[in-house]
Specification:
Number of helices: 5
Number of domains: 1
Strand content: under 5%
Helix content: 55-70%
Structural class: mainly alpha
Number of strands: 0
Radius of gyration: 17 Å
Largest sheet: none
Oligomer: single chain
């Protein structure tokens, strides 16, 4: 008889290999874009791609294991990537925001949305009380 997997077993952040594939690579991209002297086009591409990658990875993880912060950070990172892209494409209405402001607010917002929801709500949203919400 198969036992159901716990949310932690389904969490892509649970194993180092999956964590690196989902979040480590784009975090390295954000670090490189922030710290290395790169051509502006490469830096811009790294920021947009990394935020989009993190956003998609979080939403996939949220649907897979119901990780609380992923429901918040996924849309936030995708919004950040879209605002960065809109700024680069000079879409009207985005010119009052600077690229660096979007990156900084996006990064700070991601950290806040990563920490606060899990402190308030626990690590996983669970159905039918199968696993306690505060399981860490």
């Amino acid at each position: 008889m198969n036992t159901p997997l716990s949310p932690q077993d389904k969490d892509n952040a649970h194993t180092p290999r999956r964590f690196f594939m989902f979040w480590g690579i784009p975090l390295c991209g954000l670090a490189a874009a922030s710290l290395l002297p790169l051509m502006p086009a490469v830096e811009t591409g790294l920021f947009i791609t990394s935020f989009a990658w993190i956003g998609i990875a979080c939403l996939v993880n949220a649907m897979q294991c119901s990780r609380v912060h992923c429901w918040f950070t996924g849309p936030w990172c995708l919004l950040t990537a879209l605002l960065l892209l809109a700024d680069v494409l000079a879409i009207p209405g985005t010119r009052q925001l600077s690229f660096s402001l979007i990156v900084n607010v996006g990064g700070a917002g991601t950290v806040v949305l990563w920490l606060v929801p899990e402190l308030a709500l626990g690590r996983y949203f669970v159905k039918s009380g199968a696993v306690r919400n505060d399981q860490r």
